[in-house]
Amino acid sequence: MVTSEIMEDNNGVFHGMEESEVDAQMGQTRAQARANSNRSSWSNGQCVVAVPSFSTLNPSFDLSLCRAKLERDGFEIPFSDMEAPLKTALDVPSVKRYMVFNSALFHFIMAPVLYVVLWCAVFSTLHLYITVTDYWVLCLSVSLVSIFLTTAVIFVLHNSNKEINMNLDVRLVQVNERMVRHKLLVGVADWVQNCTGNMQLYFVYWDMSRCLRALTETLEGRSFVSADTQKKLKRKLSHLVLVTEVPSADLTAEESDVEQGLDEQSPLLRNEDTDGSTSSSQQGSAKVTANYSLIPDASLPAQGKAHQLLLTYSAAYVKLLVSECLSGPSHYRLRPQRNHCTTAPLCLCQYIKKKILQ
């Protein structure tokens, strides 16, 4: 039988509160305190959740499982900040095809195939122009040349995967723009393990405040050579131009916001060139193509530039972080000063300084 606890308020009015309600409120309080405690125990660079892809040929991730694991660790993230932008970024056929053909497993399978093709091509070419009595000398020479060319191609592809790419990392910029509010960064990484592909979606804990402060101070220290810094940014980021289709009404509204000085309320990807936009239909379709550049505008303050650079390279950094591909001194005492990551030789702001500002 449920008993009641009698309570008296300031007006002398008595109210009854069931013990079950008290227990429920106390349980919610304990759960909230436990969640806050779990979140405070994380440090920069620690992987919170890693979800593997369902299929190698059709990469997709269980976002409901991601949400369940994140909630268990105390991260309450709205649907509009996680599932919606992730589906927009990754649940696209062209992006899935890119993830397959750019995966480590595909490169692993392509290496022997490329070697055989090169061997046959080089052998058939040299056999026409070079006459030798000992075929083993020709075969050995062809094998060495084929091994060298195959190694060079794989080396180029391997290094290209360490750089930021437009088809995946840049598409995750807008996801991380929302996730960073919850002290999380998202990235996709893969490698070959036991001759099988291992593609996963990673959620890494990251408090951006210290990196933002350090990178802002660096840009402010370069204020006396701001023109040189801006040229360096354009040279390093000029290839990062995103071409998308947007409704003409939204494009007009964005232009009016810029004219009214509302740049601080606009998304990270801002319009770079709207004069050259072309209609997607000859009959006046409602959509037009627009180019969005990731080069920070020269008129932005140092903090605004730092914030944009951190988000631009966030997904690429997570990919390198979880793959252990960040180059730098591994010993704790040899790490650069003001490293804000406990699990890698370089933190996000130091990685940007090394890749762009040096």
Describe this structure in words.
Residues 252-285 are annotated as: Disordered. Residues 276-285 have a biased composition (Low complexity). This protein is an alpha+beta fold and 358 residues long. Among the domains are: 104-160; 208-259 and 285-357, no CATH class. 49% of the residues lie in helices and 15% in strands. It has 13 helices and eight strands. It has helices at residues 19-40, 63-72, 83-90, 93-101, 104-129, 135-160, 173-179, 208-221, 226-237, 248-259, 302-312, 314-322, 348-357; strands at residues 4-8, 14-18, 47-52, 184-193, 196-205, 241-247, 270-273, 287-293. The strands form three sheets. A three-stranded antiparallel β-sheet has the order 3-5-4. A three-stranded antiparallel β-sheet has the order 6-8-7. Strand 1 and strand 2 form a beta hairpin. Helix 5 runs antiparallel to helix 6 and helix 8 (208-221) crosses helix 11. The longest helix is centred in the N-terminal third of the chain and has 26 residues, at 104-129. It is globular, with a radius of gyration of 27 Å. The chain starts with a strand and ends with a helix.
Please bin the fraction of helical residues: 40-55%
Rg is 27 Å
Q: What is the string of helix and strand elements? A: EEHEHHHHHHEEHHEHEEHHH
Give the count of helical stretches.
Answer: 13
Distance between the first and last residues' Cα: 73 Å
Major sheet details: 3 strands, antiparallel
**Counted beta strands:** 8
Keywords: Membrane, Transmembrane, Transmembrane helix
Pfam family, one: DUF4481
InterPro entries: DUF4481
Organism: Parambassis ranga
